[in-house]
Design brief:
The protein is α/β, with parallel strands linked by helices. The chain has 2 domains: 135 residues, FAD/NAD(P)-binding domain (3-Layer(bba) Sandwich); 116 residues, D-Amino Acid Oxidase, Chain A, domain 2. Helices cover 17% and strands 37% of the residues. The protein is built from 5 helices and 17 strands. Strands 3, 4, 5, 10, 11, 12, 13, 14 and 15 form a 9-stranded mixed beta sheet that branches. Strands 1, 2, 6, 7, 8, 9, 16 and 17 form an 8-stranded mixed beta sheet that branches. Strand 12 and strand 13 form a beta hairpin. The protein is elongated. The relative contact order is 0.19.
């Protein structure tokens, strides 16, 4: 590989919630941190339902500003086909997730981290000093490469770029998740999760309330090809029929109204989540909540 152009203590791959948190905490600890993101903008497109619990916020030692919170919620309600429902009270927040991720990156920068957009990792190789592991030389697309880092944190999402490049783990099994942003959706402050296999075989559906009557209405299912049709049928048959669907606020104006989502790993944690100078976090490590997809 080429002679390193840039050096750092910690190189974070991906500027999502996992990457932003890793960069922030590393920078708070006084380390020289670089975070790279392959998109040209942090936070878009949004791939999840945008929820986070109060417990998670405390564990991450974050004080999130009101500007990134869409609304607080009281917990979740699980609904079953026979009409029964069970409430699980756990306070939390529905975020404007694109703003949350941008705020996390700004907080990391305020602590000394450097952020570089449109940078994509394409190769990495161990380095040694006096026969001992000393770090990684990372190649990629972007003006900062090659980058010499003592530690690499892979927060690249379900794609798991480091696992792929180093052949650490097999590709995970994934399911499809997609949702619409809808208007004037009634809510009592709970997230609704529907365990209704008639619409989402081996999956579930949700209504996640947001501010000003908005809500994310979506599903996850193993039937990737039929996901849109199943969600549309659910909306048509269960109280959402006459509600307006619109594009989320992070999508550019003039774009045709459509849903948004992504793939979710369901294989469980990868067998290898760390090795010399490398840590996998979040979806890149297979650490996915079965209920909140993140």
């Amino acid at each position: 590989m080429d002679t390193p152009k840039t050096t750092c203590d910690v190189l974070v791959i991906g500027a999502g919630p996992g990457g932003g948190s890793a960069a922030l905490h590393s920078a708070r600890s006084g380390l020289d941190v670089i975070m790279i993101e392959d998109h040209s903008e942090i936070g878009t497109p949004v791939h999840c339902g945008e929820c986070i619990s109060e417990v998670a916020i405390k564990n991450l030692e974050l004080i999130i500003p009101d500007s990134v919170v869409s609304r607080p919620v009281d917990g979740i309600r699980v609904l079953f086909p026979d009409g029964t429902a069970k409430k699980l009270s756990e306070p939390g927040y529905v975020l404007e997730k694109h703003l949350f991720e941008q705020w996390l990156a700004e907080e990391a920068v305020s602590e000394g981290a450097k952020v570089h957009l449109s940078h994509k990792l394409t190769g990495m190789e161990k380095t040694f000093s006096d026969g001992q592991f000393s770090g990684w030389i990372c190649e990629g697309k972007g003006e900062q490469f090659p980058i010499q880092a003592k530690v690499v944190i892979d927060a690249s999402g379900v794609g798991g770029v480091c696992s792929k490049l180093l052949k650490l783990n097999p590709r995970p099994k994934v399911i499809a998740g997609m949702q619409y942003e809808m208007l004037e959706v009634p809510t009592d402050g709970y997230l609704d999760f529907y365990i209704w296999p008639n619409y989402a075989a081996k999956g579930y559906l949700w209504m996640i309330p947001k501010s000003n009557g908005r809500a994310n209405v979506g599903l996850v299912t193993e039937d990737k090809k039929g996901a849109v049709k199943s969600l549309d049928r659910f909306i048509e048959e269960h109280g959402f029929k006459d509600l307006e669907i619109r594009n989320p606020p992070w999508r550019k104006e003039g774009v045709k109204v459509r849903g948004f989502g992504g793939t979710i790993p369901i294989s469980g944690p990868h067998e290898v989540t760390h090795t010399d100078g490398l840590m996998l976090v979040g979806d890149a490590a297979g650490f996915t909540s079965p209920l909140f997809e993140g």
